[in-house]
Design goal:
Elements: H1 5-32, E1 41-42, H2 44-51, H3 55-67, E2 72-74, E3 78-80, H4 86-110, H5 113-132, H6 135-153, H7 156-180, H8 183-198, H9 202-228
Antiparallel strand pairs: 1-3, 2-3
C-alpha cells in the first residue's frame, strides 16, 4: 500500500485510466454481443456490479459509449441501450465507407514495421476463421484489426469519427450474422484488407475495403427481408 499521497497520485491516475479502459472493453463487448440486449434500461450501479469496477471509472466508460451511440443517458431514469434501426445502419455504412477508405489507405502508407507484422498475423487469423467458420476468433480479430487500423493511420480526426461507428457496426452484425451473413466470406474479405495494408498497397487496401463494405451493405439489406418473413 502506498502511504504517501504525493507519491500515489501518478499511480492512481494511471490505475484510473486502466480501470476506465477495462470498464469500456467489458461494457462494449457486452452490448455488441447482446449480453445487454437492445432496449434495456439499466443503472450505473448495476453496471458497476457487473464489471466489479467503481463508479468513477465506470461513468467515464459510459460517457465514451454514449459518444459512440451504444448507450443513451436518460437523466433521472438510467442508461438505455438503443434499439437497432436498419435505416440508421445503412446511413452509417455510407459514412463508414468514406472514412474507413481513408483510414485503410493511410494505414497502408504510415504503418510501422511492427504494425505491418500485426496486420500479417491478423490476415492469417481471418483466413483461419474463414476456414473454420469460427465466429469467436473472427470477432476478436476484427476488434483488434479495427484498433490497429486506427493506430496505424495516424489521423486523430478520422480515428474519432470511425470510433463512433465501429461498435454499432459490430453489434448489428452480431445480431444478424447467423441468419444473413456468410462468415467465411466476411473473414476472407477482412483478410484481403489486412494483407494489402501489411504490404503498403494503398489502392489495393481501398479496393478491398470497398468490396468488404459492399458485402456488409448487402447483408444489411438482407436483414430487412428476414424481418418481413
Amino acid at each position: 500500500m502506498v502511504s504517501s499521497t504525493v507519491v500515489a497520485m501518478p499511480a492512481l491516475v494511471k490505475s484510473k485510466a486502466k480501470l476506465t479502459d477495462l470498464a469500456y472493453q467489458q461494457l462494449e463487448e457486452a452490448i455488441v454481443t447482446l449480453a445487454i440486449p437492445p432496449g434495456t434500461l439499466i443503472s450505473e450501479q448495476t453496471l458497476s456490479e457487473m464489471t466489479g469496477i467503481g463508479r468513477t471509472p465506470l461513468r467515464e466508460a459510459v460517457q465514451r459509449l454514449a459518444r459512440e451511440h451504444l448507450i443513451l443517458v436518460m437523466p433521472q431514469r438510467g442508461l438505455l441501450i438503443p434499439e437497432i434501426d436498419i435505416g440508421k445502419q445503412l446511413r452509417l455504412l455510407e459514412t463508414r465507407r468514406e472514412i474507413e477508405r481513408l483510414v485503410c489507405r493511410s494505414a497502408a502508407k504510415r504503418a510501422n514495421q511492427q504494425q505491418r507484422l500485426a496486420f500479417v498475423r491478423l490476415g492469417e487469423e481471418f483466413t483461419e476463421a474463414s476456414k473454420t467458420n469460427d465466429d469467436v476468433m473472427f470477432m476478436r480479430s476484427d476488434r483488434e484489426f479495427n484498433e490497429l487500423c486506427l493506430a496505424a493511420c495516424r489521423n486523430e480526426f478520422a480515428e474519432s469519427a470511425l470510433r463512433a461507428l465501429n461498435g454499432l457496426s459490430r453489434r448489428f452484425w452480431y445480431l444478424h450474422y447467423k441468419q444473413a451473413a456468410d462468415l467465411p466470406e466476411m473473414a476472407s474479405l477482412h483478410a484481403g484488407v489486412a494483407r494489402a495494408i501489411a504490404e503498403g498497397q494503398q489502392n489495393e487496401a481501398a479496393e478491398c475495403l470497398d468490396r468488404l463494405i459492399d458485402n456488409i451493405e448487402s447483408f444489411t439489406k438482407a436483414t430487412v427481408l428476414l424481418d418481413q418473413v
